[in-house]
Amino acid sequence: MPSTLPDEPDTLAPDQALDGAVEHETMLFDRRRTTPCAARSFVAMTLTQWGRTERLDDIRLCISELATNAVLHGAPAGGQVLVRVELHATMLRIEVHDGGNGTPAKRESRGTADGGRGLQLVSAVADHWGVMERQGPGKCVWAAFHHSAVPTC
């Protein structure tokens, strides 16, 4: 079930807290226009290797939006974007880390404006999403997706 919070990031309830990751993969990308596409490919390849493709389209959409936001608004010029994928017993989590200031927030899109819908899409598609501080500069924007305990074939 997607997040129902209208204007703020979602948080996992204490009974939904993530257990230790069963699997995880991380990749660092230079801040470039091609980063969102490369991040989508990295996440899709990782999930395919893990046999966890049941929500691949939703996850690809979310990683694309989060990586795009990091490139456009987060990572400083010459900076990098870190993408992490974590597989937990019943949840899959994607994270995008950047070194920029500010906290992303869902906003109302303006009519036919080209931008401003990324976090609306993430909120509609992911089961949970949020923003975390990091040690040092920047932030981590994440999205989580429930999955079955048994991998797909």
Describe the 3D structure.
GO terms for molecular function: ATP binding. This protein has a single domain (22-106, 116-146), classed as 2-Layer Sandwich (Heat Shock Protein 90). The chain is built from 3 helices and 5 strands. It has helices spanning 35-50, 56-74, 118-125, and strands spanning 23-30, 80-87, 91-98, 128-133, 139-146. The protein has a 5-stranded antiparallel sheet, with helices on one face. Helix 1 runs antiparallel to helix 2 (56-74) and helix 2 runs antiparallel to helix 3 (118-125). The longest helix is centred in the middle third of the chain and has 19 residues, at 56-74. It starts with 22 loop residues before the first strand and ends in a 7-residue tail after the last strand. Residues 1-8 and 13-17 have low confidence and may be disordered.
Give short descriptive properties of this protein.
153 residues; alpha+beta; Heat Shock Protein 90; five-stranded antiparallel beta sheet; 28% helix; disordered N terminus
Order of helices and strands: EHHEEHEE
What is the CATH architecture assignment? Answer: 2-Layer Sandwich
Give the overall pLDDT as a whole number. 84
- Quickly count the domains: 1
Tell me the CATH topology.
Heat Shock Protein 90
Uncertain regions spanning at least 5 consecutive residues: 1-8, 13-17
In CATH's first tier, which class applies? Answer: Alpha Beta
Question: How many H/I helical runs?
Answer: 3
GO molecular function: ATP binding
Domain Histidine kinase/HSP90-like ATPase: 39-143
Keywords: ATP-binding, Kinase, Nucleotide-binding, Serine/threonine-protein kinase, Transferase
Pfam family, one: HATPase_c_2
